[in-house]
Each structure stands twice: as structure tokens, then as C-alpha cells.
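Entry 14. Structure prediction run on the chain below.
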Amino acid sequence: MNSKNVCYVWDENLIQECDRLPAVPGRASMVHSLITAYGLLQHVKVVRSKPAVDEDLKRFHSDLYLNHLKTFTEIDDEYMTTNEDEELGIGYDCPPVSKMSELVSTLAGGTITAARCLTLGLTKTVLNWCGGWHHANRHGAEGFCYVNDIVLGIEYLREKFPKVLYIDLDVHHGNGVQDAYNLSKSVFTLSFHKFEPGFYPGTGDIDDIGNLAGKGYACNVPLHAFYSDDTLEYVFGKVFASILDYFLPDAIVVQCGADALALDPHGGACVTTRGYCKCVSTVLEAERPTMLLGGGGYNHANAARLWTSLTAFVTGVSLDENIPEHTYWPQYGPDYTLFIQPTLSRDTNKTTYLDECVTRIQSNLNTHLQKANCVSNEASSSSSDKPSENGLVFRQNRRIFEKTSETKLDAEEKTADDVYAFTE
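Output returned:
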């Protein structure tokens, strides 16, 4: 892959707002700083994120919820949540923060910007590590997520790509995205996650395959505790190949939540960078327009290690195992290397169990998607609405996507020569 054909969504405001998230304070800066310290911005096309507006957010979220967010202007430590707050998910795991409406619009804007990179044909692969908030629902916040930027991004993708495959690698089930498309045949949701009694969110059983018209268009792979690279790679390869054959997606979105990594405080899995890279490699081999997003990841140093490694992987850049010295270097101790050490916990997922899951999934696909597959073949053969080549789109959309000369990232960081931004 030509690395300069990979788009990387960035903006100072996007980083600063993401840093304000109570569940991952300062994580966005740590991730971006490591990517920059390795010089990876020289190998991507940096695209400036643009905040979402109300019309964007209303494509999924309710007026009631969005209007309530606007009431949070300045929040102090003594603020007590109200009944209305809690009805809309603002409380225990999603505490109120100051200027919440600005936070939500900025986070959503990053993924919408990424989607536009694909719909305009500016790239085949786009990265937004500040995105991936998969638990929020239409009417409220949930599970550390104040906005479902993924659903908003998919809605923009559907303007160009009739069928979108959503893949969730987070250790928690991607319930918010699945619920949004539970009745849909145009978006297929696929989630690999830990599924055990008492583990949040408690959904995503293998029998959970969508409802009514959308029955068969959701697929869940429930894994036992401490699932490893071997388990994830084994089941991902088999399930993804089947879904690709049956659903025939026009575009793919992958949520690369880093909380399935070993030693994550909210995880309970034992995956390393190897497992994530293998899954992403398998997706990219399908040669569909692909968006890679962040998500969970509460060991911030490991999240930065993972997303930096994935950035290097998709751009074809080899990285030194030794972390370069930069602002956050002390937080990568005691070894100061890129490698994520797996734990000694025993993977409780046996091959017989994984094969049973695969068999049931393939049976569901054969039952519910066989006819849809035939219809899709006919539709795709008559459609001329295909993404254009990169250079052509740049020339045709010069006023939509232009270089910005005023942008420079942190002075200590040597970055890409060009930063692009969407203009009206």
C-alpha cells in the first residue's frame, strides 16, 4: 500500500476535547505524540477534523438528548446529577463535563471527517484513533460513550456505499452500533468480545442475530475470559471470510478498541498487537474502502502502542522496538519498548468451542443471507457508482478538500509537510 494514500484524521481541538473524556483523560495526546515521535505523520495524508453540526448529530441522536447536552456549560465538582440527567445516561459511568455539547460535536466530527475521506474517494484507508465510541444510544450516553460517532460515520458512508460491514474488536460488545441497525439489511454488525456473567454490557450472545427485517445481519462471537491472539486470529479468519462472501460489503468500518489487550484494567482478555494487526491485515486484503477507529483502552500506554503499531502497519513502515524519547516517554516504563507482553493467564477458549461458534454463524448466514447475496450481485453488476482514483478526486474536489498552509503541529514534533482540510 502506498502510505501517502492513507488518511489520518487530526486536529488540535479534536485531541484536546478527547483528552477531556473522563474515562480516558489525556489519552488522545499520548497516542498522537507517540505516532508523531515515530515520524509516522510523514507517511500519511493528515486531514484536519471538522466538528459536527446539529444536523449531523440528529442523523442518529434525539433532539431531547442533544438539547439536554447543551445545558451543561460549566460543571463543578459539587454538581449533583438530576433525574433527567440519569434518564439520558448522564451519571455514574458517563459523568457530566463542562461544554458537553462542544465535546460531542468534536468527537463526532472526527469520524464524519473520516467517512467523507472515503465517500469522496480520497483514500481507501482512513484512521481516526479519537473515534470508536460504540455504546451510546439514540436517546442517551452509555458505557463511557457520550456520542455514537460510529453510527454517524456509517450514515455518511451509506450515501456512497449501499452496504457497510461494521467490525468491533473491543473487549466489550458493540451494543450501541448493533442496536442502531438491528432492523437493517444495509449494515452488517460483527462483534468479537468477552461474554461472561456480570461483564458489561451483558449483550452479544451468539443467538443475537438481529430482528425482523434485519434478522441475520448481526453476528456476535462471544469469547471466554483471557482470549489470546491465537483465538482471535483463528475465529476472525473463519467468520470474516464467510461474512465477506455472503454480505458483499461496499465499505468496512473497524473499531479497534484497545481494551482487549493484555493488562487492560477493564478488559480481561490477553490479546497483543499481533492479533489486532492480523485482523486488520485480513480486512485490508478484502480491498474495500476501510475506516479504522479507536475505542476502549484504559491502559493508556498500551493503547498508544497498539494504535501507533496499526498506523505503521497500514502504511508499511517498520518501527524500532525502543520507544523514541518524547514528552510521554517516562510512561512507557519499565522497558520503554513497543512490545506488549502477553500475560500467563490461560486462554479458556477451546478449539471445539470456537468451531461450534463458527458452524452456528455459518448456518445463520446461509439461512438469512443467501437470497440477499443473489440480489446484491445483480445490483452491483448494474451500478456504476464506484469510488474514483485518488488523484482524479483531488483535482475534481479542489474546493472541498484543500491544503491548509497555517497548520503546524506541536513545535517539538516534526510532522507531515501537508495538512489537508475540508472547505465549503
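The beta strands are 6-10, 45-48, 125-128, 164-168, 187-194, 218-223, 251-255, 290-293, 401-404, 419-422.
Filed with the rest of this week's runs.
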